[in-house]
Amino acid sequence: MKIVLTNDDGYLADGILFLETYFLSKGHEVYTIAPDKERSGASHSLTFRDSIKLVKTEANKWVLNSTPADCIHFGFLGILPIRPDVVISGINHGYNLGVDTIYSGTVGAARQAALSGIPSIALSSAVINNTINSPLIKNFFDIHLDQIFNQLSTDYVININFPHCSYADLKGIKQTRLSHKHAYSDNLVTFDSPQQGRYYWINGEKPNFDTDENTDSGAINADYISITLINPMPEVNKKVLTIDDI
Q: How far is 174 from 139, CA to CA, in rounded Å?
């Protein structure tokens, strides 16, 4: 298969390097176009007015000083020499669950691929000792990935999250719906500098899991691999507003 990789953790992150190594070892044709640094929270942001620098670092590998969605957008506008069979975004260092999928640069890049007519998968993992849960992920890939590849579609983004446990302790694999909760509880942190004034940043606390195991968040908390099919386009609410006609 022709596979394009991207992420929101940057081109040197463990997650995307794991994917490069794995898919090359399986004989796939792999292309990487990824951000120059961490772009977490970039969502589906595209750049239209500012210039962007693109650097080819190796054969079939490009680095962009912009967002994950820009990486895919630029790739399909002529940077990539092929039209891929699938775009895989990740593996994100940390979950992308529930409401937080809206903000996720990992999911945003996968959504951009689907809207561009290419099937896509977004991958996210628990962080163990500052890296992804690679033993669990490799076992899942070896056993189940071909099944996933056989069901690719541009009708949805396949959002897969891997829990903290080992493969031996895995409860199973669940197809889930999105939780309506934020995966992390945010709080505002301040720092006062005598010279520069007050600075603010948002600090995400420990995961805030759902109790319903049929949601992505609840499944992860119960040590299941969660697979959620996310519509690329926002759904229209069926509520009919009462408005006087002109």
A: 16
Strand pairing class (54-58; 61-64): antiparallel
| Cα dist from 80 to 60, 83, 88, 122, 126, whole Å | 8, 7, 15, 20, 31
Give me 212's structure tokens: 């319903």
CATH number assigned to the domain comprising residue 127: 3.40.1210.10
CA 151, CA 148: separation in Å to the nearest integer? 5
This prediction has a pTM of 0.94
Cα angle: 88, vertex 9, 221; to 5 degrees: 75
Question: For residues 149 and 186, is the Cβ–Cβ distance under 8 A?
Answer: no
Instruction: Tell the residue number behind the tokens 């912009």, with chain if given.
Output: 66
pLDDT tens for each residue of 190-208? 989 888 899 988 877 777 7
Place of tokens 């759904």: 235
Alpha-carbon span 176 to 195, nearest angstrom: 50
What would the pLDDT profile of 161-176 be if each residue is shown by its tens digit? 999 999 999 999 999 9
Q: In angstroms, rounded to a whole number, what is the distance separating the alpha carbons of residues 155 and 146?
A: 19
Q: Which residue has the tokens 């691999």?
A: 225
Omega prior to 91 cis, within 30 of 0: yes
**Which residue range(s) make up the domain with 17?**
2-181+209-230
Helix axis angle for 14-25 and 134-149, nearest 10°, is 50
Counted domains in the chain: 1
Please check whether residue 51 lies inside any domain of the structure: yes
